Amino acid sequence: MKTVVVAERTRGALRRVSLEIAAKASSFGDTEVIAVKGDRYSPMAWSSAVAEKAKDADLILVGATPSGRDLGARVAAKLGRAYAADCTDLAAKDGALEAKRPMYAGKIRATVKVPSPAVISIRPGAWTLPAGTAAPQVTEIDPAADDPRITFDRFEATASGGKRVSLAEARAIVSGGRGLKGPENWKIVEELADALGAAIGASRAVTDAGWRPNEEQVGQTGKTVTPDLYVALGISGAIQHLAGMTSSKVIVAVNKDPDADIFKIADYGVVGDLFEFVPAFTEAVKKVKGTN
Known about the structure:
By secondary structure, this protein is of the alpha/beta class. The chain has 2 domains: 3-141, Rossmann fold, CATH 3.40.50; 172-289, TPP-binding domain (Rossmann fold, 3-Layer(aba) Sandwich), CATH 3.40.50. 24% of the residues lie in helices and 27% in strands. The chain has helices spanning 16-25, 43-53, 66-79, 187-196, 204-208, 239-242, 274-289, and strands spanning 3-6, 9-10, 13-14, 31-36, 59-63, 82-87, 89-93, 96-103, 108-114, 118-122, 138-141, 172-176, 199-202, 229-233, 250-255, 268-271. It has a 6-stranded parallel β-sheet, sandwiched between helices. A 5-stranded parallel β-sheet has the order 13-12-14-15-16. It has a 3-stranded antiparallel β-sheet with strand order 7-8-9, with no helix packed on it. The longest helix has 16 residues, at 274-289. The chain is globular, with a radius of gyration of 20 Å. The N and C termini lie far apart (52 Å).
């Protein structure tokens, strides 16, 4: 099976999700990793270039990132191929592809059969990146001519841009909810995140209230994350939020309500006052790491 992986880059470096997909792709057959020149994603120019380069491929894999989902759908439409989005696993079976993906806000895991040739987007973190894996050789392609009706206006970095690893790339995330009681208490989340080397997330209630920027929202209408460690502070566990983080490998919840839904999916739960527990836990983390 001829497979093409469309890699994404941030500031010139391959994104982790691209490395994860490239490491796994060789199991499907002959693999080529391509990247469109330039960091600024352009829907028309990139999709046309990728469709032309990968038109003979049996399988095209992209990361299920905001730009990857958009690109994958456009390439599938241009080539008239099946498209399965936001998948957590993929296998070749009986001449077709079987993809696993969450459905109904993460309540179920569906297995769908996808005829080849196909375009598939894979969730960040769905495939483990083995330690010591070398970066793949990447073939760079030129973007096609852009649609003259679309012009680039400006790029605006988010408020937290550059300070911490992004949610999509993070292997550890500390998220806060309404249990923090107000934005003035967010330093508790930030201090634990800094101690763990983690990204910061938030529930929808928090971002709707204006406590945190929208780009930090985790959930069905926010970002879907799959880190190795997800720490939920003062988050009750509404289904909307759970849909965005239930695939995390280890979930730790701190909440004063013993009946909070977040404890139903947590690997480790602490029933208690987060304002007492979290600072003590943060100091313990610093002590273990020797940073206090």
